[in-house]
Amino acid sequence: MLAKRIIPCLDIKNGRTVKGINFENITDVGDPVEMGRLYAEQGADELVYLDITATHEKRKTLPALVRRIAKNLNIPFTVGGGVSQVEDAEVLLENGADKLSINSAAIRHPEIITKLAQRYGSQFVVVAIDAYCKNENWEVYINGGRKPTGRELFSWAKEAEERGAGEILFTSMNHDGTKNGYAVSALKKMAEERGIPVIASGGAGKKEHFKTLFETTKTEAALAASIFHYGEIPVPGLKHYLANEGIMVRV
């Protein structure tokens, strides 16, 4: 059995780490490079950096920032935001990114998943999916949660895997920033249906939320932001708690 991964997520806007609730009310929380280095020292398994306004503002993720991050980290990190073509991935790789997260571009041009997987390998390609549940129906959104697509969550995750995605990063917009727990039912269904790792995002507020996630679903990794950024649940304390509860993590 593989160890479960704990992944701090750093949303980036104008070169700074920010955080919001339900994808709104964005506030500044710190320098992404310094925060990333601290998380690495604390034992985070990986990091995810998402430039949350790049697609909406029709620009690319800043290669210079990725280069700074790479020089200061000794753990894998994923970068996403503003990627619209294969060449964007090449730039991020050259500047030190370990994986690429694609979201809006994958919906608009699904063939990009296959092209990236064929060129770099599926292990490089993370398809991020932001979805909102209304009347028990999950709809996929793009442009940083601003634009509904009409695509259904589970069918899109299936297509992403078939096209070559190596991981699915699913964020529940209903749960994002609420600290009320992950979208366990949806994550259980997705992780059981998919043959690739699923990363849970949106809703972590207590250590027990991680325990519930890992005990009741086959999700392989848990992503969180504000509880780590504000020191509410330090990464080492969370990992020791999970280990004591019988959940395999790297301590």
The assigned structural class equals alpha/beta
- For the termini, the CA-CA separation is 15 Å
CATH architecture: Alpha-Beta Barrel
CATH class: Alpha Beta
Give the ordered list of helices and strands: EEEHEHEHEHHEEEHEHEHEHH
What share of the residues does DSSP label as strand, in percent?
Answer: 25-35%
Strand order of the largest sheet: 1-4-5-6-7-10-11-12
Q: Averaged pLDDT, please? A: 91
Q: Major sheet: size, sense and barrel closure?
A: 8 strands, parallel, barrel
Fraction of residues in helix: 25-40%
The number of helical segments is 10
Number of strands: 12
CATH topology: TIM Barrel
Spatial extent as radius of gyration: 16 Å
Looking at this structure, what is the CATH superfamily? Answer: Aldolase class I
Low-confidence stretches: 55-59
Count of domains: 1
Shape: globular
